[in-house]
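Data availability excerpt. The first of two example chains:
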Amino acid sequence: MDWLALTLFCLAILVIIYHHIGYPLMLRIMSRELANTLPDFYHRHYKITPLDHMLPSINLVMPAHNEADAIADKIRNLATLDYPAYKLKVTLVCDGCTDATAQIARETHNEEQCCHLQLSIIEKTQNSGKVAILNEAISQSQSSVIALSDVSSLLSVDSLLVVAAQLSHEQTGVVCGSYHFYHSLSAGEQAYWQYQRTIKAKESALGSTLGVHGAFYAFRRNLFKLIPPDTINDDFTLPVQIVMNGYQCLYDSRIIALELEQAGNEMDFQRRKRIAAGNVQQATRHLGLLHPRYGKIAFNFFSGKFLRPFMPLFLLMALLSSAWLATQYTFFQLTLVGQLGIYAITLFYLLRRSQPEHRHLRVLFYLVSGHIAMGIGLCKYLCGQHKGQWKRVNQQIHENQ
């Protein structure tokens, strides 16, 4: 049994190291000689010119559920975007809102600086879920480009011009941008999001990044396919359906989506559990992306999105195999104590709903707590306890208390 335990331990450690360190290093090496020049975009400077007619029509769709606190800032932000007013339509879908989201949206739209915006406000009496809203709104749109954005995030003023420049290339089907936060993040969160931005940039250089952030992304309307109604992570499934048809999903760091909502420790942990369940779903539903015909995209999918939801299983494998070997070998006794110590510290701060003060401990806490959330999400998904209906994160937390 010792040789089996040793084999399982080595396999688990190799996979864990490869996913977290080896894959980013390989991306850096593989993309080093590849040109990743961002296309120039048309700088209008808010002036009407004859070139405006060359820009694609864009329908920016925003599903919303009880967004009264953020909707005014969002509409004012959209009114400042540098894009021809007659080419941009904004659709706000209030999905069973029980607050004043729609009313505040109308009042803000009537403001002098916002009244030029082509804003349609649709009110749904029942909460049908984000996926159902997206399927309906996108299917009814007549614009050539669809942009999706969260109400809680503000966009850089030239975002749509950058999108138009990227989509001027026929092989580009989806464009996403860089996700940032208005409120300061912990050291762990900062390291995580910088890691994610670097990964996306390198994956894009190789041909296509996989999955985008729902804060903002855009795609060709004619490439859209209905999203399965029980989908959890729509911001992965929708772009991947386009990628699997031979189009690229490109990351452009010049597009900035600034998140206004500040998530506390508990809210962040609940959000990560839900995303974890979606990660399992997307890994199993899109196994076809592992086919060799997808080349580097298959490599990206396996190394990143496919392995990620199963990291808790490899961590558990490393823990159990080292526990078995610790009965005979000093090295594995130390290894076991180290693992148990890390998990104990993480659980201690999770129960306290706080984070360590030391910077390096915060990074470690954020990483390990993410895998714990991933493990819980994995179990819930396998037990059928997760559904695809979309709600605000803070409402989900309230329901779980």
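And the second chain:
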Amino acid sequence: MSEMKTVKRGELFMGRLSHGADLLDELTEICRRHHIRIGRIEAIGAVKKACIGFYNQQTRAYEYLAFEKEMEITKLSGNVSLKDGQVFVHAHVTLADSSGRAYGGHLAPGTIVFACECIIETFDGPAFERVLDQETGLALWEPRP
């Protein structure tokens, strides 16, 4: 059954990330520093190397691909919520190599920023906490009242 909650637009943060930073860690730290508990993230730019994941629905485990090459971030889309009471950034990314081949998946630690511009939109409303969903094996949103 679908569960939806009403939220209102909050603040909008725009900026660039640090050269050489871990992309996922940097986004998470920005959200922590600004007390963002619910929001969405977009980004474009380039990475020095990358790690992306794919959730195997049969084994209920993530499988990872590592790319030891420079790639363009053609699209990063994600959200901010809470997991175990802590800020949690969940993002998917599409990356393109020098031949124009695209790779996509779950943004994982080990993706190192060359240059990245991001937008983080916050929302005012009930926090969304990630809890284990027995049906999928994933930590999914459970909106608080």
